[in-house]
């Protein structure tokens, strides 16, 4: 009897052990599946973002080297016509002015899509230029501080970092009604620390993120691409601050 009872107890323990083991294996398997799915999503996001930047670069080059050059040639032709047709001087000058505006717009679009400074001199020169241009607005007080060892980093990372800052600035200019903007970048021991803040009207971060705000989604997707960490401190009426850490 005691032997039979002992055998039953052993069998029960064996069953419990194998059930628990099966549960642990299933949990590990589920975790691996979720990890693979996240890695697959991240890889897909990286491919998408890289594709977008390549397309931006291609379009910017075509605008600058194709349409930009064509507009310049047309402008020269208008100058020749202007000298030979004094009777149509007013009309030609008006058309020339419109052509100059079109040329300026093409240059701006090309620059926004892929700034020449970014490809030639890198991220740090490009954002300094970006903030100098923003600082031309007399209604804005702009501060940009870069410290540490800001050498060149990989092209993909430079482009992603520039797009992140560009999106932050666009959000401020379009929605925040801010009077002050500040950007601090410090590179130390292979880590880039970036802090961007404005004193605008702020926003409800949770609500904007859940509503899949394109600006926030764009920033977060690029941070994920860089394997970085982003913290957003924003409240209605309290301005906002982004804190970003990225391995470079």
Q: Overview of this structure, please?
A:
With 248 residues, this protein is an alpha+beta fold. The chain folds into two domains: 58-113; 117-247, Histidine kinase-like ATPase, C-terminal domain (Heat Shock Protein 90), CATH 3.30.565.10. Helices cover 67% and strands 16% of the residues. The protein has seven helices and five strands; from the N terminus they run ααααβαββααββ. The chain has helices at residues 2-84, 89-113, 116-121, 123-134, 155-176, 205-210, 214-225, and strands at 141-148, 180-188, 191-198, 229-234, 240-247. Strands 1-2-3-5-4 form a five-stranded mixed sheet, with helices on one face. A hairpin with a 2-residue loop joins strand 2 (180-188) and strand 3. Helix 4 (123-134) runs parallel beside helix 5 (155-176). The N and C termini lie far apart (71 Å).
Summarize the structure in short.
This protein has 7 helices and 5 strands, in the order ααααβαββααββ. With 248 residues, it is α+β, with helices and mostly antiparallel strands.
- How would a crystallographer describe the biggest sheet? 5 strands, mixed
Number of domains: 2
CATH class of the largest domain: Alpha Beta
CATH architecture of the largest domain: 2-Layer Sandwich
Rg calculated over all Cα atoms: 28 Å
Arithmetic mean of pLDDT: 78
The tally of beta strands, per DSSP, is 5
CATH topology of the largest domain: Heat Shock Protein 90
Helix tally? 7
What are the segments in which pLDDT stays under 50 over at least 5 consecutive residues? none
Gross morphology is elongated
User: What's the CATH superfamily of the largest domain, by name?
Assistant: Histidine kinase-like ATPase, C-terminal domain
Q: Bin the helical content.
A: 55-70%
Order of helices and strands: HHHHEHEEHHEE
Q: What class do helices, strands and sheet pairing give?
A: alpha+beta
Strand numbers in spatial order across the main sheet: 1-2-3-5-4
First-last Cα distance: 71 Å
> In percent terms, what proportion of residues is strand?
15-25%
